[in-house]
Amino acid sequence: MERLWHIGEGLSFLVAPAGRLTSHKGGAPVYLLGLYGKFRLRVEEGEWHSCRAAVIPPGLRHELDFGGEPVAALYLEPQTGGIETLARLLPGSRDLGGARIGNGGNISFLRTLYETRPEELGAALADLIGYSRRLALPDGSDPRLNRIFEYLHLHAGELAPAAHIAESVRLSSSRLQHLFTQHAGVPFRYYRAWTRLRAAMREIAKGTTFTSAAHESGYVDSAHFAHDFRRMFGSTATLTLRPHLPVRRSGNPPVARAVCPVRSAAARKIP
Predict the structure, then answer these.
(1) Which residues pair with 11 in a beta bridge?
(2) Residues 109 and 205 in one domain
(3) 65 and 100 co-located in one domain
(4) Closest Cα partner for 41 from 23, 15, 68?
(5) Which residues span the domain enclosing 159?
(6) Helix or strand or coil: residue 88?
């Protein structure tokens, strides 16, 4: 099966076969969809449940078992939309220890995108999220936090202290930590680690080696990158991102690369 990545501004999308993912906590909310069948999920140390789709908030420890079948995973950054936005993709869902599970939710749409229209992937995902945001609750985000989210993604390899970033938007460090956890769903340091991991994945999508991608994204070495990947995805980076398997790319025949839009230049400081 061809793998498909799209690492864009404010969201990440991956289609790939997957097996058993051990206990882990994500750094951003994710919508998971079994493209051709159900998968199993358990939250914390609870019982296993079978479902076709799930929305899992960041910071919620869980395990997954896809049985080697293909899964679509859509991660959404806080400035793009929160957990409520993804929940709208799964109507008729029920709660499972903080996650939402169900047996429907844009199955045909995402499967068709993967199978027949990959060249339209970025625009189609943007339309899907835009529509879902309009259905979700009113946006109660703090513009200061949105500036911080943007800064962290643009400078993922930098490890600026929380106090320094808080001062740049005229917040105390403690107030920043409180607002950050409230809005992002995970503490500041955990989300900063997520942005750095995402930056490394962006480099790998361009064809960069794991070691070089880790260094370019601010990791001391590839071992630290591997550690972060496992704790946030429940699998090894080499297994999930194997570069020798074909990855479908927009408008081209399958090649061992990924859909990865080039990010525009931005200012080095938070405005």
Answers:
(1) 8, 76
(2) no
(3) yes
(4) 23
(5) 143-240
(6) coil
